[in-house]
Amino acid sequence: MENSADLDPLLEKIGDAKYVLLGEASHGTHEYYTWRAQISKRLINEKGFSFIAVEGDWPDCYKINKWIKSYKNSGENIQDVLKEFNRWPTWMWANWEIAAFANWLKDFNLNKKQEEKIGFYGLDVYSLWESMDSIVNYLQKEDPATAELAKDALNCFEPFKAKDSYASIFSTSKGDCKNEVVQLLKEVREKAHSYDSAEEAGLNAELNALVMANAEKYYKAMAGFGDDSWNVRDRHMVETLNRLMAHHHEEAKVIIWEHNTHIGDARATDMAASGLVNVGQLIREQHSKEDIVLVGFGSYSGSVMAGRNWGAPMQKMKVSEAIQDSVEHRLHKSDPENKLIIFDENQELNDAFSEKMKHRAIGVVYHPDRERGNYVPSRMSERYDAFIHLDKTTALHPLNLQPKTELTPETYPFGI
């Protein structure tokens, strides 16, 4: 698998599906981003997909959405927009690979009617403070009465803003901001249709309010140091996705970019034994099988952009060769080339990938010297509908690290 034409079997597998989930085995690999972009371009051009939803914060990703749709005051160039991504890990979205894809999306949208323009939205729950500021500032101009509710919610959360970690936000407090944010969400939902002074203003206000409501649940779960916060986060992402589908037309189709741990069905991993659910599982449970295609990604070796600890400076790290008997090791050993594997094509293939195998998952924090802890036991043919193995991969290119002078984002769609 070397170029876009090699994706034909995957496009055939996708068929008329409405939900295509594209994973990644790390948050810092160049080829995961560029291959997902190539798949997304073909889905938009050939199958009429409507928007892209990603594992990113709503306020920041909405800035990309505004820019690619040429909304008023959306910024001069994509680099300036992406440099506003201030939450660690900034490299996840403020990188040259996203800049290249956003430029393509803007060109695609340029002469389209408003309802035909491709959107780009964030699904995550982390942006509590940014969402608060956004909704208060907006409502003060458009809906002063509801703005007072937003201020009440903001005042409720304000004592916790200086806390130094998510887990500590509610751990020492007897307060509960639930009533304030639920009332705010109710009011915004009822009035969203009247917020028409800017494109998608109602949607933006409602989903900022939804972030506030679910962030309250998420941070309180974090304070309990249990696993509930994972489920709150993934359920929030699906709730946001469902709202976005309702916002678009009845035949809307969505491309979702998230880590494999979110898009690969949790029931085919050890996550299920811990009571964890994820986006892939929830979408499969909510929709018919033919409407959904889950695509996982992996690689055998290379390099990655990550941090040594949470909040640490990003750095390019060597990715160790995959451990013995992992999925990645087996695929490399059989033939050290890129591969596209489509499950359900024959029983022999399904059987070969139905046993539980170790499958690598690298997060934003990575320690190459602790390689054996980076694997999730998985039944691959149940976890995904297709899997893309890229044998050797390279680190992505953050915007604040200059690429070689002769390169621009458009010049490296498949690797450097």
Fourth-level CATH superfamily of the largest domain: EreA-like (biosynthetic domain)
The CA-CA distance between the termini, in Å, is 16 Å
What structural category characterises the helix and strand content? alpha/beta
Strand content: 15-25%
Our count of helices gives 15
The level of helicity is 40-55%
pLDDT average, as an integer?
86
- Please trace the helix and strand order, writing H or E for each element: HEHEHHHEHHHHHEHHEEHEHEEHE
CATH architectural name of the largest domain: 3-Layer(aba) Sandwich
Q: Report on the biggest sheet.
A: 8 strands, mixed
Reading off the top of the CATH hierarchy, the class of the largest domain is best stated as Alpha Beta
Gyration radius, to the nearest Å?
Answer: 21 Å
Basic shape: globular
Low-confidence stretches: 163-174, 403-416
